[in-house]
């Protein structure tokens, strides 16, 4: 049986977008309560009855989010000098894909109505 498994994580961070015009609201420093959805796809292990232990996903994801992004200015994080949702998705993918076999998608929600999904290349 093939399934998609998703787990949500939250972190708080500030950023500004340096490439937008100076009068754009996102050119100013502002913060978000980010929601990151990590989705893994694959075949359920017949013996275990699951694709992967949710705790294993958390073991990989939380140190990255809490250790490198939470309560930080994203512009100061190496590789996120232009911290758009799109760039944040790709940054997370590059760090999580080697540790999470079957990674299907990373979705970053900046707000409850604005999000970006990246499925790797």
From TrEMBL:
Report the superkingdom from the record: Bacteria
EC number per UniProt: 4.-.-.-
Cofactor: record remark? Binds 1 zinc ion per subunit.
The record's annotation in InterPro entries points to: 6-PTP_synth/QueD, 6-PTP_synth/QueD_sf
- Quote the catalytic residue positions: 26 (proton acceptor), 71 (charge relay system), 110 (charge relay system)
Query: Which reactions are catalysed by this chain?
Result: 7,8-dihydroneopterin 3'-triphosphate + H2O = 6-carboxy-5,6,7,8-tetrahydropterin + triphosphate + acetaldehyde + 2 H(+)
What are the BP-aspect GO terms?
tRNA queuosine(34) biosynthetic process
Enzyme superclass (EC) = lyase
Instruction: List required co-factors.
Output: Zn(2+)
- For this entry, the protein name equals 6-carboxy-5,6,7,8-tetrahydropterin synthase
* Name of the encoding gene: queD
